[in-house]
Design a protein that fits this description.
Helix 2 packs across helix 5, helix 3 crosses helix 4 and helix 4 packs antiparallel against helix 5. The termini are far apart. The protein is 76% helix and 0% strand. It has one domain. The radius of gyration is 19 Å and the shape is globular. The protein is mainly alpha-helical.
């Protein structure tokens, strides 16, 4: 009977250790962003941009929307969780106060700039692969490839240690 609690304690200790690793956190946030990306891509492609059926712009518009929404999702979770220990606070801010909108907007802009290469890489690879496979699978492959460049850019610039 004592084996089960030890096993659970060890499993919880392992999970805490893994979650303490920043790249694992980044990966989990990225996974949530992938779900958001795929959901918005599907909804955009199948419903929102349905009127573009005759035009060639439907995949481009739905993919751009999916990337934008997923980027805001990832910024939010990376700021609140992955790099929470590095988020600089002004001296007058307390733990219960939100950062000023200008500071948050500036950091979002920095995040977007730091991620531009990965976003562009994802966009190009998705469109390139979509010629030979389903557009959703192409997008998942592109996200995986672009994730490393996004992590490095944001770790070293957007959320760098102060």
């Amino acid at each position: 009977m004592m084996a089960a609690p030890r096993w659970r304690e060890r499993l919880l200790a392992l999970l805490r250790w893994l979650l303490a690793i920043r790249y694992v956190k980044f990966g989990l946030v990225g996974a949530s962003g992938t779900v958001v990306n795929i959901l918005v891509l599907y909804l955009g492609h199948e419903y929102v941009f349905q009127s573009l059926e005759g035009a060639e712009g439907k995949p481009y518009a739905s993919l751009a929307l999916a990337i934008a929404v997923a980027t805001v999702n990832n910024f939010t979770w990376n700021r609140l969780w992955t790099w929470a220990d590095r988020v600089a606070r002004a001296p007058q801010e307390t733990d219960t106060e939100a950062p000023p909108p200008s500071k948050l907007s500036a950091q979002l802009a920095k995040y977007a700039l730091a991620s531009w290469f990965g976003i562009g890489l994802q966009y190009v690879i998705t469109l390139w692969l979509a010629h030979s496979m389903h557009y959703m699978l192409a997008n998942v492959i592109a996200i995986i490839i672009a994730s490393l460049s996004n992590f490095l850019a944001n770790d070293r610039w957007t959320f760098r240690k102060r």
